[in-house]
Amino acid sequence: MNKDVKVIRVKNLYKKFGDFTANDNLSFEVSKGEIFGFLGANGAGKTTAIKILCGLSYPSSGEISVAGFDVYKERELLKRNIGYMSQKFSLYEDLTVYENIRFYGGIYGMTKQEIDTKTNGLLDQLDLQHSRNKRISSLPLGWKQKLAFSVAIFHNPEIVFLDEPTGGVDPVTRRQFWDLIYEASRAGITIFVTTHYMDEAEYCDRVSIMVDGRVEALDTPTKLKEQFNALDMDQVFLSLARKAKNVE
Amino acid sequence: MNRFFGFLKKEFYHIFRDKRSMLILFGMPIVQIMLFGYVINTDLKDVKMAVLDHSKDEYTAEIINKITSSGYFQLTENLQHLDQADAVFRKGEVKLILVFEPDFGKNLIKNSNGNVQILTDASDPNTANLEVNYLQGILQNYNVEINEGRPVPSSVQVKSRMYFNSNLESVFMFIPGIMATILMLVSAMMTSISIAREKELGTMEILLVSPLNPLQIILGKVTPYLALSFINALVIIGMGYFVFGVPILGSFVLLMAESILFIFLALSIGIFISTVAKSQQVAMMLSMFVLMLPTIILSGFIFPIRNMPVPLQVISHIIPPKYFIIILKNIMLKGVGFEYVWKETLVLFGMTIGFIVLSLKKFKVRLQ
Ligand SMILES: Nc1ncnc2c1ncn2[C@@H]1O[C@H](COP(=O)(O)OP(=O)(O)O)[C@@H](O)[C@H]1O
Ligand SMILES: [Mg+2]
Q1: pTM over 0.80
Q2: Domain of residue A11, CATH code
């Protein structure tokens, strides 16, 4: 991690849907190579914020730059430098493993050669060589999720945004998933990850906890536990979540 | 460019791997044409026929005998005068009158030409057309028989005339109608479902986060359907022409150009529907009720517009397929050129622009 280089800068971010404020004055920074946990109950406003950071929707106000690019004016450049795994599963079920990789590599402008070389390494790493030409629909969920993550960082982005990547996955697979995240982080990719599994919060370098659209706490897991006098992140979260109104 | 081809490849995988899409794309047009073509033309049996024989010789007797013994036709009346024709048809029993010219036999042998006229009650034009075809077949056989071993061939010349519907309006109408329906189905419905599917599955977000811009995404989504629709248009016109003898009297190039315009219109409607619909289900329902039913019911394809209640006639004016069907009918069946269809063409063009503008607006609003 390089604390001197900030790859995400958010200052006074507001996002309103009519009268409802989904993101209420968010301000934070994320360093290069950091694993940044973005926590909050359902309906806290995590997805709303992630979509703004990815250039999928515009903020109502605020100054935001991602990978050094302004989210209002430099969307095209921004998009080339990020990866995104949405909270819905996002590979094509009717395409094979290889066809999915080839397609996503292709839309990021990678050549067939690059794609093929990298695919081999990737399939070895995931132990998926045998399923190379199988349709995604025939894979178990855990493998799909790991593959979706690998596809999201296939074009070697500076930052990857993961929106509840481990939803519905068993604990063993979640552990393996986090191994992949660590590996990507070691390779220099900044990880911005939302989750509501509190044990996963412990794996992050820093976490922010959102309640009702506001960031109520932001620090390393160790410091947060000290601050809230808690044994684990679960207790930290509970003491904050009691204040919540907009729980879905 | 490579990105675009990658995108197209993926779209074709989606289409070719989905049984429902394949069925709609390739099964539907053929089944529809067959259904309309054959069900409308049911087999003939004992059609009541009258004869007006100005010649009364052995040849006319032989021909009449051949016709009645075929089982398709039944002689019920001998007329004395052509003036009786109208009255006979009005009674409704007799569907067909066979008229032999005076001295038919003599003309046939001496001048090698005997003239027969077939008058049909064309208030049911499909059947009328079929009856004429059957009769012509029988007369054709007779020609072959009498010419055996003769140096100069004689022939029975047939002229047919349709009563009550002299320009035979709806016999071939099913081809333009099927064209409009299928192109709507493939271009509008399938595109809107395919775009809605990406939204529903969440892959649309991934595409929007990628360096592809929205225009490229939309082009990638619609291009396969443009190509497939065009192939479908060719198949439908080809089957009409080769299997059912539906003529193409006007310019083939103009016909295809108009078809492409209509495909563009349908695609833009499909895109518009997908900006409104969040799921495949909704896209399908919208396409069904907003597109397919009006296309089938109100476009004049099955029910003539002039027979509709006035409110429906008014609604039919805003239905795009109506204009396309008029254009097709004019080019294919009347053989007229662009100067007769430019107004309808302009309407289709205007509608296309309209839907594209609406879709763009919707899309902008969604990003806010
Ligand atoms: N397009 C939208 N229009 C109106 N309200 C929205 C929209 N998107 C999200 N919201 C609301 O904003 C709040 C935060 O949603 P979201 O960011 O999805 O939460 P999270 O991802 O933390 O579960 C929810 O109350 C949700 O209903
Ligand atoms: Mg969410």
Answers
A1: no
A2: 3.40.50.300
